[in-house]
C-alpha cells in the first residue's frame, strides 16, 4: 500500500475550500495577498502562523488551491468534527510524531496535492518563536514546495484562543515566496531535518513580521489563555 492511497480524497478538500470561502467572505472583510506564490500544480505545503481558532478555515477558504489541513485531533470531538472529516482535514494527535497523521499528509503530497500545517504546534502569538519539525519532515519526504503563509487578524490581544474574530473585521492571508530548503546530498538525515526546520521557521517568521507591517495588522502581544503547549 502506497502513502498516496492513505490520504483523504481530493474532492473533500475542494468542498472544504468552498465552505471555508463562503464562511470567511460572508462574515469578514477577508482577502488573500500574493496568491500567485502558490505553485499551480505539484506537492505544496502551506506553512502558516497560528494565533486564532479560525486560522485553518480562513487559510483554507482563501488559498488558491484546495488543501488538507492537519488539525488537532481533539477538535474533531467538537460539533465541527463531522464537517472536518467530510472536508478531508487530517486529525493530528497532540504531541510529537503522530505517524498516522504524517503518513496521511504524505499521501496527499505524493499525489501532487496541498497540505496545510501550523508549525508552531498550537495557537499563540503567531510570531514563530518556535516551530515543530513535522513540516520539514513532510517537505523532505514529499519533495514538496513550502510556502510561508501569514494569517493576520484572527485574534486580538486579550481574546481567548477559542474566540472568533469580530464580525466584518479585516482578515488577510498573505502567501510568501517559497522557502529554499537545503536538500544537498551527503548531509546526515537528522542534520538535514534540523536545518530544514530552522530554514522554514526563519522564513515564516520573517514573512509574518513583514506582512503584519505591510498590511497594518498587528499580531497579538499575548499567548492565548486557553492555548495548549
Automatic annotation (TrEMBL):
Alphabetical UniProt keywords: Acyltransferase, Transferase
InterPro entries named among the record's database cross-references: Plipid/glycerol_acylTrfase
UniProt cross-references to SMART domains, sorted A to Z: PlsC
Pfam families, per database record: Acyltransferase (PF01553)
Domain Phospholipid/glycerol acyltransferase: 44-154
Recorded GO CC terms: plasma membrane
The keyword Acyltransferase appears for this protein: yes
CDD domains: LPLAT_AGPAT-like (cd07989)
Gene Ontology BP, a term: phosphatidic acid biosynthetic process
UniProt key word Iron-sulfur: no
MF term (GO), any: 1-acylglycerol-3-phosphate O-acyltransferase activity
Protein name according to UniProt: 1-acyl-sn-glycerol-3-phosphate acyltransferase
Amino acid at each position: 500500500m502506497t502513502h498516496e492511497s492513505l490520504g483523504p480524497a481530493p474532492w473533500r478538500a475542494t468542498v472544504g475550500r468552498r465552505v471555508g470561502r463562503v464562511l470567511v467572505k460572508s462574515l469578514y472583510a477577508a482577502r488573500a495577498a500574493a496568491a500567485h506564490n502558490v505553485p499551480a500544480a505539484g506537492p505544496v505545503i502551506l506553512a502558516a502562523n497560528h494565533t486564532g481558532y479560525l486560522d485553518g478555515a480562513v487559510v483554507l477558504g482563501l488559498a488558491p488551491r484546495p488543501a488538507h489541513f492537519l488539525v488537532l485531533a481533539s477538535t474533531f470531538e467538537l460539533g465541527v468534527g463531522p464537517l472536518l472529516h467530510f472536508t478531508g482535514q487530517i486529525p493530528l494527535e497532540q504531541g510529537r510524531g503522530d505517524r498516522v497523521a504524517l503518513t496521511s499528509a504524505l499521501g496527499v503530497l505524493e499525489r501532487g496535492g496541498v497540505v496545510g500545517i501550523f508549525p508552531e504546534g498550537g495557537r499563540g502569538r503567531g510570531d514563530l518563536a518556535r516551530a515543530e519539525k513535522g513540516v520539514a519532515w513532510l517537505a523532505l519526504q514529499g519533495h514538496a514546495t513550502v510556502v510561508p503563509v501569514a494569517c493576520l487578524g484572527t485574534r486580538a490581544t486579550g481574546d481567548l484562543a477559542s474566540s472568533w474574530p469580530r464580525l466584518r473585521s479585516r482578515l488577510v492571508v498573505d502567501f510568501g515566496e517559497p522557502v529554499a530548503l537545503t536538500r544537498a546530498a551527503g548531509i546526515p538525515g537528522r542534520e538535514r531535518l534540523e536545518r530544514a526546520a530552522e530554514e522554514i521557521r526563519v522564513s515564516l517568521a520573517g514573512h509574518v513580521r513583514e506582512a503584519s507591517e505591510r498590511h497594518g495588522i498587528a499580531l497579538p502581544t499575548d499567548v492565548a489563555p486557553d492555548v495548549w503547549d
